[in-house]
Design a protein that fits this description.
It contains 7 helices and 2 strands. It is mostly helical. Strands 1-2 form a two-stranded antiparallel sheet. The longest helix is centred in the N-terminal third of the chain and has 28 residues.
């Protein structure tokens, strides 16, 4: 595993060079099997987070098996979001997997914390995260990943992200090209939301930066880890 010197949540995506002009119109149908599975996975995410809450409160540690499962749920959700209306950045069908799948165009890595604050676990998922909820709610139109602590399922494609992705879809339909500037903006908003999801999911004590990091890769340019929890 590659050690990151930046924020412990690493979000990457690649824009496919040749995207179908029309496939995005039916991806909501093609992704139904994923939506059904994710509904159960997000229920599991919510239960695992509650169990982790008490484990952190009494031991200061996030049980590794629960951490790996919750990272997998976020990872799966991110792949489906990139395929569908969270980004529309790839036409490659997402794998049914909680594993890293480093060859897929959308990847997510969260560094496992050896120790977590027992005090922060009481306030970070609601009080400390309020400013970020306001920002991500604007981006995603209702919380999206940030609602993970409340057991929300799937991915919200509303808000500013939904609007920009719609513009990208129209551009694909009529011009056959996804504007790179739109892709960079969409990735920045998703990156912000995923960082917040990890924080409110109690997976890190590192407060999410109030920084818009647009583009496919993390701002420090560090290579993404090939092996991830």
């Amino acid at each position: 595993m590659t050690t990151s010197t930046g924020y412990p949540v690493r979000v990457h995506a690649r824009l496919d060079p040749e995207l179908s002009r029309w496939l995005w119109l039916v991806k909501w149908i093609l992704a139904i099997p994923h939506y059904l599975v994710l509904a159960f996975l997000w229920l599991g995410f919510a239960i695992a987070t509650v169990v982790a809450f008490f484990a952190i409160l009494f031991t200061g540690r996030y049980p590794r098996a629960l951490f790996d499962f919750n990272v997998g749920v976020l990872r799966w959700t991110w792949r489906v979001a990139c395929y569908t209306y969270g980004a529309l950045s790839t036409d490659r069908y997402p794998p049914f997997s909680l594993r890293p799948e480093p060859d897929y165009p959308a990847t997510l890595y969260i560094a496992y914390p050896e120790q977590l604050s027992r005090g922060l676990v009481l306030v970070k998922w609601w009080l400390l995260a309020i400013p970020h909820y306001l920002v991500v709610g604007f981006f995603l139109g209702g919380g999206g990943y940030a609602g993970s602590h409340a057991g929300e399922t799937g991915y919200h494609s509303g808000g500013l992200v939904g609007l920009l992705v719609l513009f990208a879809g129209v551009a694909l339909l009529f011009a056959g090209k996804y504007p790179k500037g739109l892709f960079d903006l969409v990735l920045g908003m998703n990156r912000w939301a995923l960082r917040l999801a990890a924080y409110v999911g109690l997976m890190t004590d590192a407060y999410p930066p109030f920084r818009f990091d647009a583009g496919a890769d993390e701002p420090d340019g560090e290579a993404r880890p090939e092996v991830s929890p």
